[in-house]
């Protein structure tokens, strides 16, 4: 067996985003009821249809039970003990970045996401979300020149109400599941993207989610619409301070791709994972789904999941359009007492639809890492194909990995292929690399990164480097 | 025989080495000295401790040294990590080279070569320069460039794995190479390629220890010394004739030496 302590040291992650920003916030009272929902809606000056959407979702949520099929073990969430709206106090109307609280700008600076004109990232437009609200969105004018809308969802509700009313909840209905219903009732902000017909978005778009407050949940909602023959690459990053309490994050992401449109959605999730004893950390219950509505449309999910105490997340594709394509590329790394239950659903509805699933789970410490996926071929999905590959890597002898592939086919003229493997970093492999002069840490990092290569190749350039660094960081430690 | 006057200092000195794994004693007092330019062969039955000796010299964590010393270039290396030993010039050619999925052979060879170069205060090579170097070394073992883009040893045939070991040896330019049954599983042609590769890499400054069961490798590479191991000890040392004698008489012949000692 690999020397347990050595491995423990190596995979011990120094979480460098654990700081708290000391800022005056506006918080509403703890608890969840119709009045709270009305209050959130009122604060955001929402139109009536949206308040109705929220209240309907809340009614449904009240009748639903928290799902337990993933077999995750965690302390019962007290939904009345959460603050559902928390925003840094700032001026009512902010016309430019100069008016944003410097403390907030500083926070994002520290996270490596500078927002100010002088320092902002040059090739990526960023929407920065702090607790319940969007703080700033960069490159808006430049994007507007191409007809691309990139703003907070609150703003979209005000300025692009027709699109919101048409598409919000059209991919993930409020009644979809317990956490989606909760989000639909209380969502506070998030990002909105609209790519008009024929436009290739001139730069990557990115949302950065920061949870700062310890007692409030984050419930953001993202909606991306790609019109005919348009394309966009969207990146999402997340971090949170280290608290010894658990914070609930229940997001909903909806993607819509029309004829010949393509959306690439990449996530690097690095929420605080809790400490070695499993104290604290984010409960990450997220519903992400894309609808390939148009012919030859394509939605590609790639994710690198390294954080959160609990991850419950299944970015999925509804393949309606003929010859539409769904992809899911995932790396999930768990350590200590982290639990991850992640995977995808590929629902083939239209004919000649195609999906690819590549999932890589790495479990270290006492963590549990599961792939759970559904591939479904509907009656009309003639000539459709799926290929799934699910690989697990175990580090140490206390971690566990599971694979739960569900396959349902109602269409004999379709193909489903599933491959799965489990491997362990063996002492012999480590010794082999070491005996060639390669340091212990680098040896583990090489093997993990080699294991994930198929997925890293799918990430946008900027993100691939970040993901590699993040894994290396997670694997970094003081050896010996 | 090893007491004769040598012009230079020894590369490797194993002194009365005792080692165990899981409290089971494997080595029971092995002594061995290798000078630059020397080729030593170690022979013996399966389980006599030959492979263990090679792993312990390379620093395998599963074995504990309970007594004795290993000195490399005069320095005691008992407590050095395997990577430190490798960087300073100890090379172990594996009997069963390990497969490492997903890690490209080229990248592995480059990182490994650079770790050694860094130790030698040589400039580390970027991908481009390394390609040049590796091309030249591929010739030595008659390996195709396509080997480099595959994962380390994955799906390699037995012969390809062994040639990949010799390629690593060529790149790392070790001061001492311990080749653990590099000849096993090779056909005659592959054996010749491997043997000629070893000969080309070694020079008057390198020491080589060949661990083998068979005379046929020693026909290609003539050793200066042949040691016979049994039950964790070197029970007899002789010249290259000893291997021939062993080939004729079998290991049973050596059982008498154990009794004598």
Class by alpha and beta content of chain A: alpha/beta
* Largest sheet: number of strands, sense, barrel closure of chain A: 10 strands, mixed
Task: Determine the mean pLDDT of chain A.
Answer: 85
Tell me, briefly, the overall form of chain A.
Answer: globular
Ends distance of chain B? 18 Å
Q: Summarize this, please?
A:
The complex is a heterodimer of chains A (480) and B (261). With 480 residues, chain A is an alpha/beta fold.
Topology overview:
The complex is a heterodimer of chains A (480) and B (261).
Chain A: H1 4-11, E1 25-27, H2 34-43, H3 48-63, E2 86-88, H4 102-110, E3 124-130, E4 133-137, H5 140-144, E5 149-152, H6 153-159, H7 161-167, H8 178-186, E6 191-195, E7 204-210, E8 221-226, E9 231-239, E10 246-249, E11 252-257, E12 262-269, E13 281-292, E14 298-305, E15 310-313, E16 316-319, E17 325-334, E18 339-342, E19 345-348, E20 354-363, E21 368-377, E22 385-394, E23 400-409, E24 415-424, H9 427-434, H10 440-451, H11 453-456, H12 461-475
Parallel strand pairs in A: 3-7, 6-8, 7-9, 8-11, 9-12, 10-13, 11-13, 12-14, 13-15, 13-16, 14-17, 15-18, 16-19, 17-20, 18-21, 19-21, 20-22, 21-23, 22-24
Antiparallel strand pairs in A: 1-2, 3-4, 5-6
Helix pairs in contact in A: 2-3, 3-8, 6-7, 10-12
Chain B: E1 12-21, E2 24-34, E3 39-44, H1 50-58, E4 64-72, E5 75-76, H2 82-88, E6 90-93, E7 100-104, H3 105-119, H4 127-140, E8 151-152, H5 158-172, E9 176-180, H6 188-201, E10 207-211, H7 215-220, E11 225-230, E12 233-238, H8 240-249, H9 252-260
Parallel strand pairs in B: 3-10, 3-11, 6-9, 9-10
Antiparallel strand pairs in B: 1-2, 1-4, 4-5, 7-8, 11-12
